[in-house]
Structures are given as C-alpha cells and as structure tokens.
Amino acid sequence: MRINIADPVFQTTLFIIFFALFVVATLKRDTKPYEMDHGHTDELKGVAILMVVFSHIGYFLFADTRFLFPLSIAAGVGVNIFLFLSGFGLTSSELKVKKTWKEFYAKRLKTIFVPMWIALALILAMDYFLLGKTYELPVVIKSFLGFFPVADIFTSINSALWYFTFILFYYLLFPIIFRRSQPLFSAFVMLLLGYLVTRLTLPVTKDLLQLYRTHILLFPLGMAFAWLNEKKPGVKFQEVLLKVFHTSLLAGVVRYLIVAGCTFRSG
C-alpha cells in the first residue's frame, strides 16, 4: 500500500533545502591526491545509494510520484556508479596483488554472498512474521544461490536484488578473463562477452534483460579506468593547472569547469 502525502511538491522543496544544508554543513576539504582511492570510492558509493533510495521512495513508496522529483529519477545513474566502481575496484586490486582464481573466488564471493544471505533471511522473516507472506521453495532456493530472474516491486522477495545476479556474472567471469599484462584488452573482452550474453534468450523477464543491456558498459569501463588511474592522470593534470594559473583556488575552479563541461556534453 502506497503512502499519500499532502502537497508533494512543497514537501520535496523542504526536503531538498534541508538536505542541501546538511550536505554543506558536513563538507570537508579533500587533502588526498587527485586520484581515485578507497575514500573517494566510498563517497561515490554513498551518492549511488542515495540515488537508488530516493528513486525507490519517490516512485514506489509514495502514491504521488512528484514527491522527491527530480531526486527520484537518478536510480539508473546510481546503478551505473556501482557497476563502474566494481570494475574499477576489482581491477585496481588485481593490478596491485595477483591472486589465483581460487583466492579470488574465496575472497570476493564471500564478500557479496554473506551480506546478501543475511539481508535475504531478514526479509523472509519479516515477510512471514509481519505480513504473513511466504514464497515457493524453488524461489527461495534460487534467491539464496543469487539468481533473481524477476524484478517486480510488488511480487519479488526484493526487487532491488536483480542487481546481485548481474554483478555476480562479472565476478564469476573476472578471474577467467582478466590479464594483468593486458587490462584494456581484458576490459574489451568483458564488454564483448556481456554484449553477447545479453543477446541470448535468458531465463529472466524481458524488462530485466533490458536492464542488463542498459548497464552493460559500466563494469568494463571501470576496468579500463583502473588501468588509467595507475598512471595518476589527476595529479599530472593538477600540476599543469597549477603551473598555468599559479593558485590552487583558480586551478580548482578551472578543473571543475572542464570536468563539468565534459560531463554535460557527454550527457
């Protein structure tokens, strides 16, 4: 049952104002190098989580979809960020420390499966004890194995878990495909395989298959960026700007305008 809210536009305006004030009040100066490190990826993950949460609240929890608009329209961008960071993180880690495929699976699959199992068990328990809702045994078994062929907000155990099956595909392929000596070629092969697989008749709904196709580029793109990040392009770019503009403030403004302009043109 969806929630009705009085004057959703006004409520959204209030939320955006307080949210913006909170963000400004908690801003901190970034003293780290101009590169993608663990702290920066955590910040981006936080942004991606908010994008997905705002979208689910705005479109599925409340009856009037004007609530949280336009914050509610960026869920797809959030998914893209998660996929990009996953490809980036796995590749960056592998470029630093080589692992056997057994070591990779033992570490990475445990990292994604254990939290999913805990969340799934809690969801099933709450559905049963609070809502009196149960699911067929084959559905439950497939879910614990990480296969979610349907993403329906009203009938699925948790519609957001469609993403788990998608990312599991990449985790299973990564140690087989990736070569430290050829990271860019590895990213291309991953993209090609993803494209070919999503053109097959998969045992998932048509809408879910379309989601796979929409987001297929981002994981390989993250792999390619990890290779680029090893060459520290951000530091070199900042050094050039400082030489030209002499002050870090002006260099920062110019850097922002360049990045924002590129983002606007590509978007």
Automatic annotation (TrEMBL):
Record-annotated membrane-spanning stretches: 6-25, 46-62, 68-91, 112-131, 151-172, 184-202, 208-228, 240-258
Residue stretches making up the Acyltransferase domain: 44-225
Record-linked InterPro entries: Acyl_transf_3_dom
Keyword Membrane: yes
GO molecular function, one term: acyltransferase activity, transferring groups other than amino-acyl groups
Superkingdom: Bacteria
Key words, A-Z: Membrane, Transmembrane, Transmembrane helix
Pfam family, one: Acyl_transf_3
Name of the protein this chain belongs to: Acyltransferase 3 domain-containing protein
